[in-house]
Design brief:
Layout lengths: L16 H19 L6 H12 L6 H8 L3 H13 L3 E6 L2 E9 L1 H22 L4 H22 L5 H9 L2
Antiparallel strand pairs: 1-2
Helix pairs in contact: 1-5, 2-5, 3-4
């Protein structure tokens, strides 16, 4: 870098964990938005569709808890996924009052396409790192996420986290 070239990272923020994480999150969020653009509600819809396809939760309320989504928001999310033909609500044989959320065949196909697009998007975001560094980063993030989810009793409200990051 010459004296006339601007620094890539703003002076004083090059060691700021919050600022660095926010920049990486913005890059990731942009790439993910494009990768899941065909799914109602984007990334949040992808997560719900993935939960439905993988039988992650017994019912809609449990899926909302797992994903850190308000239960009332989950209703609209599942409604829109159902309207798109990606999920269906079926009666729970163990509890007629409860509805299971399951991916349709079209939902499974859409999920697979989104997963391929996400892999490409993540590869682009992580491209500056060598493969062993990418694996290390994922392992470290898994350790941090597990620690904080266990301590907080579940995932953070993702909408609140994004709103806070976007105000930085």
């Amino acid at each position: 870098m010459t004296a006339n070239e601007p620094a890539l990272l703003p002076a004083g923020l090059e060691d700021s964990l919050g600022w660095l994480l926010a920049q990486c999150f913005r890059a990731y969020s942009s790439a993910m938005g494009q990768a899941v653009a065909e799914i109602p509600h984007g990334h949040r819809g992808f997560e719900a569709l993935s939960g439905a396809a993988n039988n992650s939760a017994r019912n809609q309320a449990e899926l909302a808890r797992q994903l850190g989504v308000d239960r009332t928001v989950m209703v609209y999310l599942v409604d829109d996924l159902a309207k798109a033909g990606l999920v269906e609500r079926i009666a729970d044989p163990a509890d007629r009052r409860s509805r299971l959320i399951r991916a349709t065949d079209a939902g499974v196909r859409q999920l697979a396409a989104a997963q391929r697009a996400i892999q490409d998007a993540e590869a682009a975001v992580l491209a500056p790192l060598a493969p062993d560094q990418q694996a290390q980063l994922r392992a470290m993030l898994q350790a941090l996420a597990s620690h904080y989810i266990a301590g907080a009793g579940g995932p953070a409200n993702a909408c609140q986290v994004v709103a806070e990051i976007n105000t930085c």
